[in-house]
Predict the structure of CPNE5 protein.
Amino acid sequence: MEEDVMDKLDDMASVSDFDPITGNIPATKVEITVSCRNLLDKDTFSKSDPLCVLYIQGIESKQWREFGRTEVIDNTLNPDFVRKYILDYFFEEKQNLRFDLYDVDSKSPDLSKHDFLGQTYCTLGEIVGSPGSRLEKPLR
């Protein structure tokens, strides 16, 4: 599985952008695209119909919350998802991400109704700091 940071949408914020009155920490918007290679084939008569769900871990609560889902791509084990995730990158914060892959078997939005293909974890900083802003991780 690959996470590509395609574009940095804003210029990098500087320390002088910090607003001491509101306490707002400057952020840079990053765009993440997801591609997968050699996914498990859970379907009998065709290939998997993959969907990627991105979860972000809360800083205080440590709870994972769903950030967004890609589109479903029919009948492939090597999807290049079109839908992108746009996140705020905070340089001083560890932003934990989890990518879950599913083989969609119906129109239901309930993920428990679909086959789980695997997941991978990383931080947004790992993606942004990797060579070419491209990170490859195996699914667990």
The CA atoms of residues 54 and 99 lie 5 Å apart. The mean pLDDT is 85.
